[in-house]
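Entry type: protein chain
Record version: 2
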Amino acid sequence: MRHHFIFLFLLATLSTQPHCMQALTYQRADSIKVVTLLNKGHRLPSGENLMLYYATQLKGIPYVGKTLEVNPKEELAVNLRELDCTTLVENVLALTLTTRQGSQRFSDFCDNLQRIRYRGGKLNGYASRNHYFSEWILSNAQQGFIHEISGNKADPRGAFYPFVDSQTLACTYMSTHPDRYPMLKNDKEALKLIKANEHRINGQVVRYVPRRLLSRSRRELPNIEDGDILAIVTKKEGLDVSHLGLAVWGRDGKLHLLNASQIHKKVVLEPMTLAEYMRKHPTQLGIRVIRVKK
């Protein structure tokens, strides 16, 4: 049975915040898993690639969608028994940040997860969640957790190489399909806020590596490192990104994707290269590259 707890913790932000009561949904198995992983991570050598380490530790966990849509009202949901592509990335980043902070506490992990998942780190209803990944990038960059790699305008191989293509954000999918979101379809106020969130990011131009370049070697794509978050840009109307994963340079010298796979039904390192993977999905245009700040 899933339990609902009122969990007391201090919001970690740049300024001092008062203690607050925060609704939290999890199972005992989740807290045990988190503490076990943090204990292992604490013992790793200095300089270990924590993003890649934790993502690898989560391989084999079943793929399950909509694990955050479990409450009538928005709560911080922690679930390491089932993952989708977004919750895989969020949990890996929360584990990485908590380890860097020198903590092995479940409460600190939850604090980091909230800061990652919600705009500005503040949980204030369903609409405060970073639903579009472009929102997610903006919020987490502003908090100093990550930065997006976008190339150099003066690169001698060509401006911004290999981020030579661009996308103008036009995110409207949630506001035009509210019936597909259980917590949105009957909430006019939340829908209004979602539209405002879409308006906030729309019109921005973002750079990405087109899929035609993804078959190149690590030497030719030095901007992409093991453990980087890869956001797959889509041409589906109303969306910015359709899938997420972690970059892994394989023994074949090619780029692969470690992801929570709907195809394989679990977290897996794709045996095919990312270039091959994307050729099987014609709506996928390329990748945005997000790196955790050192």
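Comment: The mean pLDDT is 92.
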